[in-house]
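Sample intake sheet
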Amino acid sequence: MTRLRRPGVQAGLVALLGGVAVFTLAHVVFPHHTTNHDEGVYLQQAAMLLEGQLFIYPPVEESFRPWFFVADGERLYPKYAPVPAAMFAVGKLLGGYRVALGLISTGVLALTYHTVREAFDARTGVVATVLMLGSPLFLIDASVFLSYVPTTLWNLGFAAAYLHADRTGSRKTAVCAGLSIGIAFFARPYTAVLFATPFIAHALWSLRTRDPARFTRLSLTAVGGLTGVAATLAYNRVVTGSALLFPYEVFAPQDGLGFGYREILGYSREFTPAMSLDANAELLWKLLTQWVVAGPLGTLAAAVGLGAAVRRGIDGRQAALAGVLLTVSLGNGYFWGTVNMLGDLSDPTDGLVAFLGPFYHVDMLVPLTAFGAVGVVAVARWTQRLVTARVSADRVRPVLLAVALCGAALGGGAAVATASEPVSDNYAVTQQLEQAYEPFSERDLDNSLVLLPTPYGDWLNHPFQSVRNDPGFDGDTVYAMQHRQFEVLDAYPERDYYRYVFRGEWVPYLGLPVEPRLQPVSVAEGETVQTDVSASVPEQAALVSIRLTSEGENDYATVTGTDRLDLQLSTDRNRTQLTGDGIDDQVSVPTPEDGTVTLIMFVDYGTGAGFEYRAELPVEQTDERVRALTPRLEVCRDQRRCGGEAAYVPGTHRDGISMNATTKSANT
């Protein structure tokens, strides 16, 4: 029990508890990751580093390019620096990527204690550690594979070591401070600069004494920091060919700091100071009322603590810690990403901030929890003096205990209530993702190739983060986009083929589930390939209008008086012909060299209302033959859903709707 009274032991227990909590949240709340698809980028990069690779070489670049990867000839590389990915890779070596999240969060909490202890005292450091653990922004962002909390770990390592070296004169910790901020710079350069600026100002101010020992110590810190800068530039040189050209600049040259025209992937805005002011005011308000521990109570505690520190004479070290509030808030105003994370400023539920908080401002938690702890301790001491002065000596202890319990209940309840909302919101997203990914867990996909749709553009892992390729594109399951499909299949000739499709719009953050299907795909080849397509016709239907389309050419037919369509597509190198019951005239279109023949069957209820069956047949001409894949099938009740969000999923349709298609070689 005596050991438990030591602040270092108490802080250590809080840090371990935090690591376990984050590890648990990562597994339970984020098993399929978040609505921020950057997680897949970092995990893909981590897998590359474990294989000793800075680049990947896909067999068909157009079909295998992951989200936020830069294409450089035949090779691809991520736009992010490798430090966060390397940290996640360590977790994989220890048993799983999420182990790294637990270790990183434990480190952040431990270093919060050491930083606040150096700036104030050990007791305040313990309270700050508890407040950090209770902050929703820390809990949520520490539980996901993004770079913000890992960079905070290195920033805190710098702050703790710098303050310790400043107090003790230790050259070893001075070197550690420099190396820590250097690694933070390698991870997120601008973030590190914003965090370090108040401490750099403190260091420069302290040099006015012309103390040779201090100058030497600060020089060691500077050298350590510059080592990280040198590593960053060396990495740039290897990856982009220029030390001063960062990978993210290659990916999107207009996605940088400053006001004016900004653009990434075809999305652009004119970023103005007024827009920045509106966005960052909103983000800071969200941080101070929703994402810091206990919301407004935590912010009030920080304000009380800052006021108490000023009243009793804030020193330069404490001022440097407080300065992080200023540099981070002002510095992020110069980056247009703060606007993008909000989405529509008029909609509080829009944008990534609704689920992950103002993550660009995560370093502000360090001074907020530090001064929040000062405020809590100040109020506790004031309360103790008040009770001691007004209550008899024999009743002081029970009264103080009662007040402490009430305060803990109030603060703890507010903290739990504040944290529960983002946890609940993210878990609701996970439930939608669970349903979407269900087909992957229901089928043995060893030695298989899965063709994925592209609802958010031509990228892998955007949005499908849970299904990623090995760095060598040779895992038990390989995932590819549905581009240049025949080249992809040629690269994997001995595998089982599937096509992942879904019905509905992929917006899990709105609570809208999709109905998924993993459709087996076969390849047929011959001088002629036959595709049989069948579909039921509801008895209320008056007729079925059929359109066959390819290469911009269309041909038509109409079928009446049937409760079922049984049609055949015969495809050779020249034409694709449609035959079947009820089709008397010749219906045909040109066979594309490498493209799609689409069969559209509009079931008309006689009033112009109805729905469409669609069968999209991928076709490729070879020297003397033709190849085709099993068609992608859709049932379209809304034309806006056709082409990717209207998949036919057996067993989920009503009104007697059913559909099937098979493809085979008609001759050899």
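Comment: The CA atoms of residues 520 and 555 lie 29 Å apart. DSSP finds 21 helices and 20 strands in the chain.
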